[in-house]
Amino acid sequence: MDAYQNVGIKRRLGRFFRRDGRALIFAMDHGFEHGPTDFEEHWEHVNPRVIIKKVMRAGVDGVMMLPGIARIAGNDVRPDRGLMIKLTSKTNLRPKDAQLLQSQLGFVEDAIKLGADAIAATVYWGSPQEDVMMRQFAEIASYAHDLGFPVVQFAYPRGPYIDEKYGSKEDYRVVMYGARAAAESGADMIKTYWTGSSETFAKVVDAAAGVPVLLSGGAKAENPVDFLKVVYGVVEAGGAGAVVGRNIFQRENPEPLIKTLIRVIHRNEEPEEAAKAEGLI
Ligand SMILES: O=C(COP(=O)(O)O)[C@@H](O)[C@H](O)[C@H](O)COP(=O)(O)O
């Protein structure tokens, strides 16, 4: 039985990762997690069908979204690309002291009915509510794995003790700890923060013990080359690519950036050269 389940996990992971073991995944959960103001720069992208068609054309390897957006736009994700459905979230409208919890808003069955190739959940390692998210992740992972579906953990260390002890949630010792905790809790793919250098990110990759580690994109960079350099650093460190939202959808025409990211992630091209080749700069 186990062998068959592992085949399912591997085949489904293979819809995200190319032969080089890397992926560029488009993130589209911001309308819920940050609010629709994230789309104000290019308001047409508040319609998931519009932006998903654009990112598909440009060649992203997969897309991550919440279940309701998958009902609206899941069909626009081409069948040969990965569809990741995330089952936990929070709004930015919550009181501040409740922001350190992601709640479950859907179930493994929902994600499977919607055609998911992978199922994702966030754990804020170090949060006072870490226990709740650990249990949510365990329940989701246990059931998904039983059915042969890979599970992605957004392993985000954050909480008052982290700030007090390390000064920053991006301190590599903290990010490394989160990645390790994700691997030890059964994740098949990990999404986390940039640590500021390729050397320190390599430690995060090591700590994940073979589970692929992808960058969580972050706010839109003023200069796209700065963002490309971060992604280049992730790849140099042995990272498995990036999950990118704002740097893509906060551009009217995201195609040149996506094509440049593909050059950096899948062809190891230097950011500036790649950006010039795609007419981005
Ligand atoms: O993890 C998320 C939010 O993280 P946050 O609480 O803003 O640090 C997701 O909303 C995004 O999917 C993720 O941040 C990737 O999108 P970008 O950061 O590239 O916009």
Question: Would you summarize the structure shown here?
Answer:
This protein is α/β, with parallel strands linked by helices. 44% of the residues lie in helices and 15% in strands. It has a single domain (4-278), classed as Aldolase class I (TIM Barrel, Alpha-Beta Barrel), CATH 3.20.20.70.
List the helices and strands and how they pair.
Blueprint: H1 2-13, E1 23-27, H2 30-33, H3 48-58, E2 62-65, H4 67-73, E3 82-86, E4 88-89, E5 103-104, H5 108-113, E6 118-123, H6 130-146, E7 151-155, H7 160-166, H8 172-184, E8 189-192, H9 198-207, E9 213-216, H10 224-236, E10 241-244, H11 246-249, H12 255-267, H13 271-277
The structure holds 1,6-di-O-phosphono-D-fructose (P6F).
Q: What does the model show?
A:
The chain is α/β, with parallel strands linked by helices. The chain has one domain (4-278): Aldolase class I (TIM Barrel), CATH 3.20.20.70. The chain has helices at 2-13, 30-33, 48-58, 67-73, 108-113, 130-146, 160-166, 172-184, 198-207, 224-236, 246-249, 255-267, 271-277, and strands at 23-27, 62-65, 82-86, 88-89, 103-104, 118-123, 151-155, 189-192, 213-216, 241-244. It has an eight-stranded parallel β-barrel with strand order 1-2-3-6-7-8-9-10, surrounded by seven helices. A two-stranded antiparallel sheet has the order 4-5. Strand 6 (118-123), helix 6 and strand 7 (151-155) form a beta-alpha-beta unit. Helix 3 (48-58) packs across helix 12, helix 10 (224-236) packs parallel to helix 12 and helix 12 (255-267) crosses helix 13 (271-277). The longest helix has 17 residues, at 130-146. It starts with a helix and ends with a helix. 1,6-di-O-phosphono-D-fructose is lined by residues 27, 29-30, 33, 154, 216-218, 243-247.
